[in-house]
Design goal:
By secondary structure, the protein is α/β, with parallel strands linked by helices. It has helices spanning about 10-25, 50-60, 80-100, 140-160, 175-180, 190-195, 195-200, 210-225, 245-255, 275-280, 290, and strands spanning about 5, 25-30, 45, 65-70, 105-110, 165-170, 175, 210, 230-235. It is globular, with a radius of gyration of 18 Å.
């Protein structure tokens, strides 16, 4: 198959991406300063990719055909705002620059649904629901601003045309251990997120199983040569992380969504993955209804 370099290989999503790509026969190189990269990786390197020299050195050393860039400070407000912005934007720039300069064929950059701007302190309402890739972005903190910049960085390097690039916006990522009760990145459990709608409502009840997100990224990386350069895709579950229809629930927990939520009946989520289905043939397979190990 091919050699794929995965940055952030020890993270919630990175671990599933490494395992998925390795199971498909790819030679996977993990790059992460934290421990936890799956053993399926052929090699692991604790490099600091915010350092331009290290970014170039890693890609020059391994010469991957593809790079999956997931490394980032992944939780808003978990560091000072200036640190989050600096780290995430520098990572995206260095990885894209080194990949293009050293002839990597394809790069997938992780963005975030938070670029849409939900949760803004002054209030927020969507332009429409469900939200797709054409929806306006309205960043309001360092994390989602850094992800907008990461997307634009990817698009800027895509203009050169020598490396095929795309960005993916994975919804709230839930790896297998969190279905069994481990804390999510927000500190509470998935079951608490379901039991207390105000927790999941902040992010419009979006989520995706990490294995589904990894499948989507693998399909996207394979499809890059056939796609227009610089595309952006949402990756989300086929249902909402909620026990009631969002048509009823969303206006209660996110003021301002009343005029837009009426169509979100049944289990319909707030984010659309129609573009990924249309261009990639990808659909999510897992739901909280089948994966969650609910406590008695």
């Amino acid at each position: 198959m091919s050699r794929v370099l995965v940055t952030g290989s020890a993270g919630r999503l990175g671990r599933s991406v490494v395992s998925t790509l390795a199971a498909a026969g790819h030679e996977v190189v993990g790059v992460d300063r934290a421990p936890g990269t799956p053993a399926e990786a052929a090699a692991t390197l604790p490099a600091d990719l915010t350092d331009t020299g290290e970014a170039f050195e890693v890609i020059a050393r391994f010469r991957p055909e593809s790079v999956i860039h997931l490394a980032a400070i992944a939780t808003p407000f978990s560091y000072p705002e200036s640190v989050i912005y600096k780290v995430n934007t520098q990572l995206a720039f260095n990885v894209c620059e080194a990949s293009v300069a050293l002839g990597v064929r394809g790069v997938v950059v992780a963005s975030s649904p938070t670029v849409i701007g939900y949760g803004a302190p002054g209030g927020w309402a969507p332009a429409y629901l469900p939200i797709d890739e054409e929806h306006p972005v309205r960043p309001w903190n360092a994390y989602n601003l850094s992800k907008v910049v990461a997307e634009q960085t990817m698009k800027a390097f895509a203009v050169a045309g020598t490396t095929k690039m795309a960005a993916v916006r994975p919804c709230f990522v839930i790896p297998p251990e969190e279905w069994a009760g481990a804390p999510t990145q927000s500190g509470h459990t998935v079951q608490e997120r379901l039991d207390r709608p105000e927790l999941g409502g902040v992010s419009l009840f979006n989520y995706i199983d990490s294995r589904d997100a990894a499948d989507m990224i693998a399909v996207l990386a394979e499809a890059l040569p056939e796609l227009p350069n610089g595309e952006v895709f949402f990756a989300g579950a086929a249902d909402a992380l909620a026990r009631k229809p969002l048509a009823d629930l969303l206006p209660q927990v996110v003021p301002g969504t009343e005029p837009f939520a009426a169509g979100l009946t049944g289990t319909t989520p707030a984010f659309s993955t129609t573009k990924a289905q249309r261009l990639l043939g990808w659909q999510p397979k897992r739901s909280w209804r089948t994966e969650l190990k609910e406590s008695e």
